[in-house]
Amino acid sequence: MEGFRDALEQVRSVLLAASEAAPPGLYSDTELLGAMRELESLGRLVDARRLEFAGEVAERSRRELGGERLSARMGCRSASELVERVTQVSGAEARRRVAVGAATRARVGFSGEPVEAQFPIVSTWLMAGELGADAASVIVRELGRAGTVADPTAREAAERSLVAEAIGAGEGGPVRCTADELRIQARAWAAYLDADGPEPDDERAMRRRGFRVGRARDGLIAVSGELMPEVAAGLTRLFDAHLAPRAGGGFLTDEERADPATQAETRTPDQQRHDVIAVIVASAARSGEHPKIGGAPPTVLVSVRAADLESGHGVAHADGVEIPVSLRAARHLMCTGGIQTVVVDDAGAILQLGSPERCFTPHQRRAITLRDGGCIIPGCTVPAAWCEIHHVIPDESGGPTHPDNGVMLCWFHHRTIDTSGWQIRMLRGVPHIRPPAWLDPGGTWRIATKSPTRIADQLRRRRERSQPAA
Question: Domain tally for the chain?
């Protein structure tokens, strides 16, 4: 053990000294690429030991060990979490190391007999420093999809072929296959090994179904996954219902494009589908039909400094996502879900906890629903059940949480009300709306409602005014 640590320290010292003596900027083109190749060779040896140690952690954290699992004794839920905390790598990288390390590790069975590694050829070349961690991960992941349905002889041939391509000993040798190129070949092998297999397609689909929320990139959170066909069909019908021409969507007829009320739609179909997902999530959380968290409906907590809100500069933070959200998004959520003031001192101790404020009650929401009938923006027919309640006069400006100061807006129009150009005012408790200048240069204020009963009343009054006096 001490010898291994001493060797690592020597390698580290030599590498640091070499880097300081000859930084990459001093190399010629040929020297730069040659040094990079040698450094990668060294890195493969290091990566092999990383995977080996992660595999050992996984072995000592087997479920069969119960409370004696290494991960449990260290206060972690799994082997990958323990690896993540010890090494400070990402959760995805820790899971990869554990998966590859466990699949390339020979072990001892319960009866004491030696058990060969699941991928022995990968293990051999990995430990020799010839096979990179990325390539090993691709082979383990893609061939592992075939599971137990693949013929063992064919699977060994696939593993041997892929390793040969990765180390430059295959048909394309001596050029090594990159990890991305290897992934294409590995998927072809996986399809060959399990050409639908003995299981029905539905069983395979049930096993592969999933939905993943990814990491932040450029201010957005990526999502991916595979849906069961009936779930995808239901989601598609929801999209169709809200993106159809009569729903103010992007697939408009010529007559509808000529109508100024529908020309306000500038979103792409992809953006509109995003907004449909947003209102599905919001309405589901608001419905009260889902499990509670801590005795309350699923609620997104957003924290923001009062000074940042007042100055208009800064960011807010939402639990569940790793990137900050804009103050505009924070104000949107505050308008919809209310605000609770928490006062802390410089050391972080809570000095004062205010009561939740500015939430429209269910009774108020029902009254506003009957009055407005849905999103009050012309051309938008998102139903009332999917809408949010917007404070026309913000709370910080003295606006009350009262039906006379609340109107229904869909997620998109609520999120963009401060920048879209649409203006809203209340006259004697009645919402009035004015379109953006580019849509209505005259700036005409008009009563806004989607309520069938109110529209019927308006038509009756028009008829009465148009009839000659008796």
Answer: 1
